[in-house]
Every structure is written in C-alpha cells, then in structure tokens.
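Morning!

This is the sequence you dropped in the shared folder:
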Amino acid sequence: MRCPNCSSTATKVVDSRLTEPGDAVRRRRECEECGGRFTTYERPEAPALTVVKRNGRREAFDRQKLLRGLSRAANKRPITDTQLEELADRIGAQLRSAGTGEADAEYIGELALRGLADLDPVTGILFASVYRQFTDLSELEAEVRRIKSEPVAGPGQLAIDGTPVPSDPSRSMGPSPQRPVRGGNRTARATRRDNAARP
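The structure's back. Tokens below.
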C-alpha cells in the first residue's frame, strides 16, 4: 500500500478492526519511511445499486460521493472521519438490505440527515439547510421540529404524521363480543369450558 504522504510502498498495518455495521475492515497503517499514519478500508464488492434522482434520472450509487457530502456538512464540527465512514457504510448497507437494487435520492438524503443529526444535531441542520434548500427561517424551524418528532421512513413508506395506525395501542381492538348461544344467556366461552370438562 502506497503512503499518501511520501508515496513509499514500505508500509505496515498497526491496527485492524471491523467497522460498523460489520461489512468492512478498517486498517491503520504506518509508513516506514516518513512515519506517517493513514487509514485504509477493505470491503467486499457490493451488489450494484441504482439511485433514482428527483427528475427521474438514474445513476449508480457512489459511496465516495455520499461521503463527500457528509464531510462538507461536518466541516469544523466535532465529528471524526471514522464516524463519517461508518455512517456511509450504514447507509449503504441499509439501502442494499431492501433488496430492490435501487433507492430514491430523497430517501438517501433523509438517511444522511438523520445519521448526521444523531452524531451532532448542528451538523444535521447544516446538512438539511443545503439538502432542503430552505428559503426562510420558518422552514428551518419546521425542519428542526420534524427531525425531533418523526422517525425516518423506510423505502416505499410515508413518514408517520400522527394519523392512528393499526399498531397504535390506543386504537387496538377490544375483546371479542360475547355472543349468546342456544340454551339461555350463557356465552359461547362458558359453553366451551363445560364441553372441555366432560369426559
């Protein structure tokens, strides 16, 4: 591996570990000529993934392009390069886990926004200000409230807007009604218990 500082090929691995979410190996290398240290990543060749742009145009998913966008938003913020690398890996893994082979650019942007906001809320807002192209302060304030209140939607899903959903405990179904049976006012459940007790 060639040293990025002096171009020497005399380098050695001083540390190696698995990255999150476990689909790459991060190696710290040291140059034996200049003593400089740098990081490399070893990852399997991933299946092709297509990004669908807002105008309908399609292009291949580019991890480095995503990483550059994350890095610009995190410039001079307390986020390390390693954290950004891991975030890019998590986003790529989540997109491929859908198994469709393609993802909307808007969904990728949302994953990036939420990931940055988890690392540093200010960085998330800086990213959103460019990604959402805010025109006034009220839009920025609305985005801050949205990030705090809404979970990120999955591919092909709509963000939850407060409308009750089937899994909402407050809207869960009550017990089945007790239906009358022949032979009086006894319920079907009581009749089944008696029948089960008979020899």
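Headline: The longest helix spans residues 81-97.

More detail when I'm at my desk.
O.
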